[in-house]
Amino acid sequence: MAVAAGAVRKAGKRPKNREEGAGRLAAILVSPTMAVLGLVVLYPIISALYTSLYREGEGLDAQGFVIEGDQFVGLGNYAAMFAGAGADRFVNALYNTTFFTVTTVLFETFIGVAMALVMHRAFRGRGILRASILVPWAIPTAVSALLWKWIFQPDGAANALLRTEILWTTEGWQAKVAIILADTWKTAPFIGLLVLAGLQTIPGEVYEAAKVDGASGWTQLFRITLPLAKPALLVAVLFRLLDSLRMFDLPYVLIGPRKDSVEVLSMLAFDEANQTRYGPAAAYATILFLYVAVIAFLFVRLLGADVIGAAKSQRKKTPRAKAPTATTATGGAAS
Q1: In terms of CB atoms within 10 Å, which end of the chain has fewer, N or C?
Q2: What single DSSP character describes residue 42?
Q3: Intervals of the chain under pLDDT 70
């Protein structure tokens, strides 16, 4: 009986000790990565939050003495966004950020899905087409902005093609159109390639069965292709949403700074920092960070974008190996 009881204790402790050892090893292996992430992600966020609570410059205290250096203003920088002298500029930048995000992502999604459907078909030269659409996406954004700036010159290709004399890079609706065209041209291939990867996972037997049932091309598109390609499409749209919300270099290079038509939140934060007003700049950057985080959270929660793959759900469904019970161990020892 004593031998059986010892076997029970050993059988019950071994898996637990093994799991603890594996968990300790995993923590040791992951710790360098977590340290780097804390240095390059967590520290800048905390530093930005801290800086946003201060304001630079000279001022007078309650006794009338001059105060130099940073002054703690609490949430004063945040309150000044909505009620201060720069409230109109902040609201305009927030509107431009939202407008460019919605319009560019919509156009890029429609064009990217169309490109993926075309590239998914078998035809001669498909490999060359797939490689060629990577060119706009591979060009640095600042370089593509200079390219489109040359196209939108008063005597450029755009006016020559349309036979107009529009000043595309000046204040007005034409500046917004120029930004939308340039951004769509550059990043629609990104969505197209991600959706194409999703289309290639759809079995051909599904389409053959649909053809046997008499499904039309549109029925196959809306009942088979788009639902099965939805995970890849949602991930692509999520990435583009986050990238568009942080848009900076394209409007800054193509149109220029301090233009109400195209000024976005990141440009506003940069302009404040360039004027050595680091407190308001940090406050704008913090608001943009929260805006991006909320949009990403809502997108993942409401639309169910699977950004970490199906491994997590599969891990939940897979039952963990149970430790031998006392009855099993006792029976084994007795036998």
Answers
A1: C
A2: I
A3: 1-16, 57-68, 303-335
Q: Could you give the count of Cα atoms lying within 13 Å of 45 in the half-sphere of its Cβ?
A: 11
Token pair, residue 325, equals 């019970």
Q: What distance in Å separates the CA atoms of residue 230 and residue 306, rounded to the nearest whole number?
A: 10
**Residue at 177: amino acid letter:** V
Asked whether the beta carbons of 133 and 191 are under 8 A apart, the reply is no
- In this structure, the strands spanning 59-60 and 54-55 are unpaired
The CA-to-CA distance between both ends of the chain, in Å, stands at 12
Judge contact between 257 and 271, C-beta under 8 A.
yes
E strand or H helix at 59, and its extent? strand 59-60
- The set of long-range contacts for 5-12, using a CB threshold of 8 Å and a minimum separation of 24, is 7/329, 7/330, 7/332, 7/333, 8/326, 8/329, 8/330, 8/333, 11/323, 11/324, 11/328, 11/329, 12/323, 12/324, 12/326, 12/329
Q: In angstroms, rounded to a whole number, what is the distance separating the alpha carbons of residues 270 and 277? A: 10
Q: What is the pLDDT of residues 240-297, one digit of tens each?
A: 999 999 999 999 999 999 899 999 999 999 999 998 889 999 999 999 999 999 998 8
What are residue 114's phi and psi, to 5 degrees? -60, -40
CB neighbour list of residue 137: distance below 8 Å, 6 or more residues apart:
186, 187, 189, 190, 193
pLDDT per position as a tens digit, 133-143: 888 888 999 99
Rg (CA), the chain: 29
Site of tokens 């600042």: 142
State how far the Cα of 306 lies from the Cα of 299, in Å rounded to an integer.
10
